[in-house]
Amino acid sequence: MFITVEGNLIGLSPMIKVPFMRDIAVTIGVAALLTAVGAFSVATYNSIQFGSLSANSITFFYWNPAWVLFLVLVEWYVLAIVVPFGPDIKEQVQQIKKGQ
Questions:
Q1: pLDDT at 34 over 80
Q2: Is pLDDT of 70 > 80?
């Protein structure tokens, strides 16, 4: 579930208009995605190689950071969408006029 949601949020990152918030969201998203893939790999390796359940203590060392990064990513997206820390409208208009 984490990998699907994290992948969708990374794909939707251009919807965040403030550049530094978008960059932070992508950085957190990539870290969360890689951590979730690592946790899945460790669980698969343990169950195949050792014949143990995928819910043993070694897997939980990888599972906890994946869960925390997932929650941080979702909360950062909510913060970036609900409370965007962008410049005022007048400053945005000036930036657009300078770009033309």
A1: yes
A2: yes
Q: What are the boundaries of each domain within the chain? A: 2-99
Write the DSSP assignment of 47-91 as a string of letters. Answer: IIII---SSSHHHHHHHHHHHHHHHHHHHHHHHHHHS--PPPHHH
Q: How long a stretch of residues is the chain? A: 100
CA 75/CA 5 separation, integer angstroms: 13
d(CA 69, CA 100): 40
Which band of pLDDT confidence, cut at 50, 70 and 90, is reported for residue 19? confident
What is the average per-residue pLDDT within 45-49? 79
Helix pair 57-82, 19-45: axis angle to 10 deg: 160
| Structural tokens at position 22 | 């978008």
